[in-house]
Specification:
Oligomer: single chain
Mean pLDDT: 82
Shape: globular
Structural class: mainly alpha
Low-confidence stretches: 1-62
Largest sheet: 2 strands, antiparallel
Strand order of the largest sheet: 1-2
Number of strands: 2
Helix content: 55-70%
Strand content: under 5%
Length: about 350
Amino acid sequence: MIQGFYKRRKLSARKIFLIHTIINNVMRTLKLISSMIFFSQIVFSQLPSPPPPPPPPPPASGNASKADSLYNEGDIREAVVEYKTMYRLNPNDRTTVYNYACAFSREGQIDSALRYLNIAVNIEPFTRPLTDPDLIALREDQRWTDFESSLIKLINKKSRYPIKDVDYAKALWRLQCMDQYCFYETIIAVRKLGSDSPVVSALRRLQKMQNQKNLEELEVLLLEKGWPRISQVGPEAAGAAFFVLQHSNASAQEKFLPMFEKCCRENEADWHQYALMFDRMRINKNLPQRYGTHSNLDNRATGEALLYPMEDETMVDEWRKEIGLEPLKDYLKSANIKYVPSSASKK
């Protein structure tokens, strides 16, 4: 049907093919730039409404292969060929096998994707498949439930934090997966078509609608079960609540921050994530941040990031210390964020 349409519309076929490729060949852009993951999360969160989704979780490997590069450019079919070669050379490398499975998933080859995904998690169980948007096509397959249950059993045998509340964990993993919905498509569309493209605008609207749906589902879970505790659902599932709320609004963030803080004080949640959400809530209310976790692009041409205004520069390190965070200057240095204290600028 598509080919017939192209034949009838020869003058616009190239443009249609470009858009078709961008929408259907989704890639994991930024997957291999682990040192910039956290910084990109902060930067993307400051773009105009609707807000983009969070960046992908840190990759298992930091070295880009030809297959990874093809994947990141949306050349999924060619990436599959390269991953096949890599797999034959080293069939016991979990990262290669997992990426091979993700490429099959993106290409719609569900049987092959499931086959290699099972190989990957049996080499070494890990939770990434349960939150990875690369595998959304597999989530829609009836065999996903069995795979998920099997993987949870493997994780519980080897994990320091066994999954006790399995149903809650499953719901949270799915929400984190959907929180990243369309992230890769949007990045590629911006790069290839420009930020003012109608394709990008459509993807942004889709993201915004999905974010709202995620928030509604999370609120039901939090009111019923409370903030997810690491000892009950594991650190990855517990972090899913943070990601969904981080990309919501000040009202929802303020509502659940006390619940979040309580779990942090009981060593059942992440203080760094708490600081991120607290500062995001204040920024969303047009207030200065407290912990210094957020920056914006002061100069988009150079990519230079500057810290958002601070609530009290003389107190920030004390506030950070109270929740176990390093001094602000050390944190900013590691994140490559420029900071000129107001007191220094006046001298």
